[in-house]
Design goal:
The protein is α/β, with parallel strands linked by helices and 258 residues long. The chain contains 7 helices and 7 strands; from the N terminus they run E-H-E-E-H-E-H-E-H-E-H-H-H-E. The chain has a single domain, classed as NAD(P)-binding Rossmann-like Domain (Rossmann fold), CATH 3.40.50. Helix 4 links the parallel strand 5 and strand 6.
Length: 258
């Protein structure tokens, strides 16, 4: 039994699809059934309307899971937003909204999922929470100040949750993606901020590939593969870690490319 926030986005949709292939019952929680992909999904996941920044909606969504399933094995906090601005040009409203979705959303879904996860964590079987940080929580892309700050907060929250709830049989990890081909990345490239300066993902593909040691960027399926492993019994000893999946991007000294 899996619950995925942002389940109708690029990465979230791939995660739901992978879980369904593994035979799981999946709840895809998002603002709409179409989500950022702009079409109705018919993948077998149970859609749940959820604004992750709303405590009332988080309570209601997890109450539905409790009523229908009685427990939860996996929580994936994949919902997130990105703001392309420096702090000087970021309004307080934009700053607060970034933290509300990326950090408070992770907090609320986890808070109300914990009783259900405890029910699944019995007889040596662990439940799993998988949060979404970013390589931008370690290093920074220019013009993404609020986004970088929220992802650093998610990293710290992940470690704290792993310490607090590990004794209850609940593992907590975070995946920290680099460049992944999603609607968010396309928006970043086509925006006027720190991305493509008005270009498109098509015109920037070669440049993006070249900054990665493996000469490629990631796909949602790459992320879903790691999520699937972290959620599985094979990862029973993995907890409290920040799993960077960025094609080696953050491993290199960028100045050496000059």
């Amino acid at each position: 039994m899996a619950f995925v926030t942002g389940g109708r986005g690029g990465i979230g949709r791939a995660i739901c699809s992978r879980f369904l292939k593994e035979g799981a019952v999946v709840y895809a929680a998002d603002l709409s059934d179409a989500g950022s992909m702009e079409f109705s999904a018919e993948d077998g996941a149970r859609f749940v309307r959820l604004d992750v920044a709303s405590e009332d909606e988080a309570k209601a969504a997890l109450a539905r899971v409790n009523a229908e399933a009685g427990k939860l094995d996996i929580l994936v906090n994949a919902a997130g937003i990105e703001l392309e601005k420096t702090i000087e040009h970021t309004t307080l409203e934009e700053w607060n909204r970034s933290f509300a979705v990326n950090v408070t959303g992770t907090f609320l879904a986890s808070k109300y999922a914990l009783p259900l996860l405890r029910k699944a964590a019995i007889d040596g079987v662990t439940a799993s929470i998988i949060n979404f940080g970013s390589y931008d929580g370690f290093i920074a892309d220019p013009g993404l100040a609020a986004y970088c700050a929220t992802k650093g907060a998610v990293h710290a929250l992940t470690r704290a949750m792993a310490c607090d709830h590990g004794p209850e049989g609940i593992r907590v990890n975070a995946i920290c993606p680099g460049y992944i081909d999603t609607p968010m990345l396309q928006s970043f490239f086509s925006g006027g901020g720190s991305g493509g300066k008005g270009g498109t993902i098509e015109t920037l593909k070669e440049a993006v590939r070249n900054v990665h040691p493996i000469r490629n960027y990631g796909t949602p399926d790459d992320i879903a593969n790691l999520v699937n492993w972290l959620a599985s019994d094979e990862a029973r000893y993995a907890s409290g870690q920040l799993w960077v999946l960025d094609g080696g991007l953050s491993a290199q000294v960028q100045q050496m490319r000059l």
